[in-house]
Write a structure and sequence with these properties.
Its cofactor is Zn(2+). It comes from Tangfeifania diversioriginum. With 345 residues, this protein is α/β, with parallel strands linked by helices. The protein folds into two domains: 173 residues, Quinone Oxidoreductase, Chain A, domain 1 (Alpha-Beta Complex), CATH 3.90.180.10; 137 residues, NAD(P)-binding Rossmann-like Domain (Rossmann fold, 3-Layer(aba) Sandwich). Helix content is 28%, strand content 27%. The strands form five sheets. Strands 3, 6, 7, 10, 11, 18 and 19 form a seven-stranded mixed beta sheet that branches. Strands 14-13-12-15-16-17 form a six-stranded parallel beta sheet, sandwiched between helices. Helix 3 packs across helix 4 and helix 3 crosses helix 9. The protein is globular. The structure holds zinc ion (2 copies). The site of one zinc ion (ZN) has 9 residues, from helix 2.
Length: 345
């Protein structure tokens, strides 16, 4: 089968590999339909690592995908050949303390699709995954929507963890990339429409306007604190950080009202943030950390199927598998107005 492997920093090769085979009665072989290019894939592409996760070449990345079931092991009951499936890239063990406590996303033995040293990614024609990671959506959505469920479910989970009080609550999002926009889509689906977007790239601000943010701030041209205050005299209830920038954290502490919540979703380039503790303490702010998603795939699917969240609005580019190197180059360089790029097979 065709496969695209990272072979060095900013180096990719279209190669031939053996098709993966079922290794247990619970496995499912999937022919991939659509694959999203994620910011984390780009880190592996341009830096060869994320934190302590280092790529050993050659390695196949990619974890946001949908596909059609080709074969199933003898124990698989929930899906059958021919089904279009959403694939949850996280494979948990099911037996550790975290799994038993209902926290499979922080499983001690978690293996993630396209994560170095864990599971080879999905940038190829076929993958094999355990059946519990597959959610059938035949006839309910198209393959692109199905591949977008992974990033969208992170937005769904972030909003869930934020426990936004009600529809009158106010929120801001730092970063209008696919995760920031996923948070926006979920807030709007919940009826929370008083949402400001803070983002330095004008074309991404425009995208958030198209999706339904109420006001827009460019932190490179405007004073974030002043602009938010113009919109919300008493400041905002929840700030979602989806950019990984220290500046965003600094601004978030300034624009949150007393008792407000800062929800950290973005991955900072270094492992550290600093917080103005004087502000944090005086306002008694809560900080919420988000690790991928937990039990939100089904809800994300429901929101897309019901039409409450039009995830395809995030997509700006489509490429073939052969064009993957071009797709990565464009996403890495924020070129050509790219927000979400999809590889369609
Ligand atoms: Zn991703
Ligand atoms: Zn576990």
């Amino acid at each position: 089968m065709k496969q695209v492997a990272l072979t060095g920093i900013r180096q990719m090769q279209l190669t031939r590999a053996n098709e993966p085979t079922l290794k247990s009665g619970d496995d499912v072989k999937i022919r991939l339909s659509s694959i999203g290019v994620c910011g984390s894939d780009i880190h592996y592409y341009s830096e060869g690592k994320i934190g302590t996760q280092v790529v050993k070449y050659p390695f196949v990345v990619g974890h946001e995908c949908s596909g059609v079931v080709e074969a199933t092991g003898e124990n698989v009951k929930n899906i059958k050949p021919g089904d279009l499936v959403v694939i949850d890239p996280a494979v948990h063990c099911g037996t550790c303390d975290q799994c038993l406590a209902g926290r499979p996303h922080t499983c001690r033995n978690n293996k993630f699709l396209g994560c170095p040293g864990q599971i080879e990614g999905c940038l190829g024609e076929y993958i094999v995954m355990p059946s519990f990671t597959c959610f059938p959506v035949t006839g309910k959505m198209n393959p692109v929507q199905a591949a977008l469920i992974e990033p969208f479910s992170i937005g769904v989970y972030a909003v869930k963890l934020a426990q936004v009080a009600d529809e009158n609550s106010s929120a801001v999002i730092f970063g209008a990339g696919p995760i920031g926009l996923s948070i926006l889509l979920k807030l709007l689906a919940d009826g929370i429409s008083n949402v400001g977007m803070i983002e330095p790239l004008e074309y991404r601000l425009k995208k958030s306007k198209e999706i339904g943010a109420r006001y827009f701030i460019n932190p490179e041209k405007q004073d974030v604190e002043k602009e938010v205050q113009n919109q919300e005299e008493l400041l905002v209830d929840v700030a979602f950080e989806a950019s990984g920038e220290q500046d965003a954290v600094d601004n978030a502490l300034k624009i949150l009202k007393p008792g407000g919540k800062l929800v950290l979703v973005g991955i900072p380039p270094s492992a550290q943030y600093t917080f103005n503790m004087d502000l944090m303490r005086r306002k008694e702010l809560t900080v919420v950390n988000v690790r991928r998603q937990n039990h939100c795939v089904e809800e994300a699917i429901d929101l897309v199927v019901s039409g409450k969240a039009d995830v395809e609005k995030m997509v700006t580019h489509h490429f073939s598998l052969d064009e993957t190197p071009t797709a990565f180059d464009i996403v890495e360089g924020y070129k050509d107005g790219v927000v979400k790029a999809m590889i369609d097979l």
